Amino acid sequence: MIIPRTIRRMKEKMEHRTGPYAHLFEPYEGDEVVSLDCETTGLDVKTADIVSIGAVKVKGRKVLTSDRLDIKLRPPKSLTGDSIKIHKIRAADLIDGIELDDALEQVLAFVGNRPILGYYVNYDIRMLDKFIRPKFGFGLPCKAIELSHVYHDIIKWRSVGGNVDLRFDTISKKLDIPMLERHTALGDAITVALMYVRLKYGDPPDVA
User: What are the boundaries of the signal sequence (predicted)?
Assistant: First the structure.
C-alpha cells in the first residue's frame, strides 16, 4: 500500500516529536530557502545512487554562495560509463569522497526545516529519502519549491495560446542567468538559486 506523502509526514512527525530531529517537522518561519541538487548515476530512483550533493542558501534577494554544501561521495558500484557521460564525474574524481551516512547528516543539518528549491526537485528529494528514511525513520519533511513551476506561473501570462518551454537551458537563457558548471551539483544549485531570485524580484540577484 502506498501511503500519501501528507499522511506519512504526519505519522513521522508524531513518531519523532520528542527526538533529536523534531525541529525538522516544525513550520519554517524564516526567509531562507535552500537550493539543492544531486548528481546521480541514473534517472530511476530505484536503481540510481548519489555521487554528489550541492546546496546553497537563498535569503531574500541574496544567494549566499559562502553558505553552501558541496559533497562528493565515495564511488558507488552503479557508476558506469553511461552516467559519467552526463555528469562527467569519474571514480577517480570521488577518491576523497565521504561515506553516504556522513553526507546525509550534513544535508539534514544544512537544510533544517527550510523549504527546498530545485529543478525537478521532487526527484532530488526522492533520491535523498531513499537513503534518509531507512537510516533515520523519516523522509525530508520540508516544503518543496519547483523552479519550473515558479517560472511557468510567471511566464504563462506572456505566452497566451502557446506552450512554455521549461527546459533548464531555456529558462536560464530567458532569465539571462549564466549556467555555472552545468551538471555539477553545486553549479546547478547556484544557477537555480540565481534564477529563483530573478523570478521572485525581477532584479539582478545579489551574490554574497
Answer: none
Strand-pairing partners, residue 104, are: none
- Round to whole Å and give the CA distance between 22 and 55: 22
The answer to whether residue 146 sits within a structural domain is yes
Give the integer Cα–Cα distance in Å for 74 and 92.
10
pLDDT digit string (tens) for 103-156?
A: 999 999 999 999 999 999 999 999 999 999 999 999 999 999 999 999 988 887
Cell of 43: 534517472
Torsion of CA 181, 186, 137, 49, to 10 degrees: 30
Report the domain count for the chain. 1
Give Cα separations from 123 to 19, 57, 95 (angstroms): 27, 19, 26
Q: Which domain holds residue 43?
A: 30-203
Q: Which of 87, 46, 91, 53 is nearest to 72 (CA)?
A: 53
Spatial CA neighbour of 114 closest among 36, 183, 28: 28
